[in-house]
Amino acid sequence: MFGCTPDYKNASVMAFAHAPGFLAQGSKGQADFVQNITQFYDEVRLNDRVLTHTLVNPSVSHAQATSGKFDEEVALHVVKETDVGIIVKGARLLATLGPLSDEIEVFPSTLLRADDSNIPFAFAFAIPIATPGLKMICRDSYDH
Q: By C-alpha distance, which of 54, 38, 125 is closest to 84?
């Protein structure tokens, strides 16, 4: 039934929380990434949260998928930045363990090319499964 066990993503949160020097590089006077991930790590650890992740931006064609470019009509992207965070719109694929988890880690799984067109796709966050407006569409099982 499980593609992965419920403890597999918690290790990545632990790794992020124990890399404050790396995360501090991205702060640039905005959100305190180190404090945010430390608090999230404590929340996951102390409350035994089950996490999953979503890895892939959907594409409308094979050519687009291999080009490294994403379609803003389909792929999850930032539509607005506010003082308290980002607003995103679009779809992502492959949230293994999604329907049985508490939260989803959302981050790029592939290296984004250093190109201004990729800025709307360069983000990371976690979102509760019960978030209003979040919709999960499960594929049919391969098990017959």
A: 125
